[in-house]
């Protein structure tokens, strides 16, 4: 190991990731400490990595993170994930983000912070490729100032944000490919709860624990759509037929308008959901390339049409917790459509 270039040692430490392991490894010799200071690319402070994090007060954790972080140069990936009991003061958090903004490509921050601050004001937006934010608000999005030209992955969990700012944030990410939003606190500006998002580059969209009257997503390159634990009156996807994978899990929706985007759909997975049959039929009848169909505990309303021939389906999985007399008839009809 003594003959390893210090740059290689930096790569090894970066693969360790955990701040605890990196600090311990750097104590072995001067070269490893030099690698930590000058060639470390990834650093993680995560309660899952070390149980002691959960036993130390927030103030001591802030000091440990500050001392460790400020001894690095050229950091590209930073993860700070603490349990719900910890609350960090905003002053050191801003210092951490500001000190790494010129080099950071990936930022994952999941800690309650007091008082509230707008993290997208402080992070380095020009280089950032991955941003994962949880339990913090996005207070304002200014399209003239907040631009993320390189951002490819965005994840928001338990984040407070207005519907307008959410739309502006996606518009500020011209290269965004993956977007995940879980349990958001969305502020609406009018009486009817409506959200409209637009992204020409988005390929994967995951949404969980979301309740809104009307949700419209315009994404001409979308390939993977996953809805989980959601309630909509209207969910509409405006695309160009690029959708390949659609998963609907524990969703109640009155109007599901995505039929025009399913011509290249290959996988459809519906689990514990309530959907109007005519709209489901419209969607499935246009999916001529469908290869895998999974329906489990699905409630259909107004089930008065059969399925068109599903010529390309090779995997069919059906299941209900409550089976009526018509179940066998319906299954037989499905099997006939899947030669």
UniProtKB/TrEMBL annotation:
Residues 4-44 form the F-box domain. Pfam families: F-box-like, LRR_At5g56370. Signal peptide: none annotated. This is F-box/LRR-repeat protein at1g67190-like protein. It comes from Trifolium pratense.
């Amino acid at each position: 190991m003594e003959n390893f270039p210090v740059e290689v040692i930096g790569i090894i430490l970066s693969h360790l990731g955990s701040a605890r392991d990196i600090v311990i490894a750097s104590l072995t010799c001067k070269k490893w400490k030099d690698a930590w200071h000058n060639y470390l690319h990834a650093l993680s402070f995560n309660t899952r990595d070390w149980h002691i994090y959960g036993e130390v007060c927030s103030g001591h954790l802030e000091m440990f993170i500050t001392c460790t972080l400020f001894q690095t140069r050229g950091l590209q990936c930073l993860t700070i994930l603490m349990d719900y009991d910890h609350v960090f003061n905003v002053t050191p958090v801003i210092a951490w983000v500001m000190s790494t903004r010129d080099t950071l490509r990936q930022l994952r921050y999941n800690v309650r912070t007091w008082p509230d601050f707008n993290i997208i004001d402080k992070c380095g937006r020009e280089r950032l490729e991955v941003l994962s934010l949880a339990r913090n608000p996005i207070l304002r999005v200014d399209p003239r100032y907040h631009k993320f030209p390189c951002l490819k992955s965005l994840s928001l969990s338990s984040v407070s944000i207005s519907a307008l700012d959410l739309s502006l944030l996606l518009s500020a990410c011209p290269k965004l490919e993956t977007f995940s939003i879980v349990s958001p606190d969305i502020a609406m500006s009018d009486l009817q709860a409506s959200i409209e998002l637009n992204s020409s580059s988005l390929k994967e969209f995951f949404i969980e624990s979301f309740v809104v009257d009307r949700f419209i997503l315009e994404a001409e390159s979308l390939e993977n759509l996953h809805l989980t634990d959601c309630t909509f009156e209207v969910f509409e996807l405006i695309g160009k037929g690029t959708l390949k994978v659609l998963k609907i899990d524990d969703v109640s929706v009155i109007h599901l308008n995505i039929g025009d985007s399913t011509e290249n759909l290959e996988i459809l997975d519906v689990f514990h959901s309530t959907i109007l049959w005519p709209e489901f039929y419209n969607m499935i009848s246009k999916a001529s390339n469908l290869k895998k169909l999974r329906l489990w505990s699905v409630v259909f309303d107004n089930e008065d049409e059969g399925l068109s021939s599903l010529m390309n389906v090779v995997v069919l999985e059906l299941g209900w917790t409550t089976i009526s007399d018509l179940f066998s008839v319906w299954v037989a009809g499905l099997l006939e459509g899947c030669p």
